[in-house]
Structure prediction request, 212 residues.
Amino acid sequence: MINGVVFDVDGVLFDTEPLHVRAWHEIGDKYGFHFADNFFNQWIGRPCAELVEVIQKKEHPGVSSEQLLSEKEIIFTRLLELEDYLVPGVEETLRLLNQKFPLTWATTSSRVSVEIMFHRAGILHYFKNGICFEDVEKRKPDPEPYLKASAVLGIEPSFCAGVDDSPSGTLSAQKAGLFTVGICSFFKKEDLPSAHIHFNSTRKAMQWLLSN
Prediction:
């Protein structure tokens, strides 16, 4: 029985993965290095703090990883403020879902960017305060984010559903003991073996939760 739902944010509620890529490309242009077209695929669902260490080691841009990450977040925040990136169909379905379940989130994004997205889309009131990058010591695929998110709801993980779209995220939810819902918006079903069930859109996953 599902009594609460924990959502990933980037790629599940908001179509923001391309914005992260654009921000990193701007950083690369500034410091004179470039990324292959598929370089960022492996980093979907993983913290930017891990990615920046790889970039720093590989490219030697002459500035610290902390500065690179700070500049990237500034660019990303600027892009976020340009428009609403909420996935189509999510808002109206969230309203119905919130009448049935308490909702929260577990993300590797910063709280600043999450608050910008949620406030701009007008959906913050549907959620209990979620778990962001700053709130955990171990990030996805470690189970800590989803364990803490379940605790926010006050519900045992085994009675929660975790909705995620990346291999690291679905593994995190599965290891935490949540019923894991995989969203195949970027990755294929076979790329998300930790998920118990798969859907090709967040809206369809939410409609399934409503009907079950």
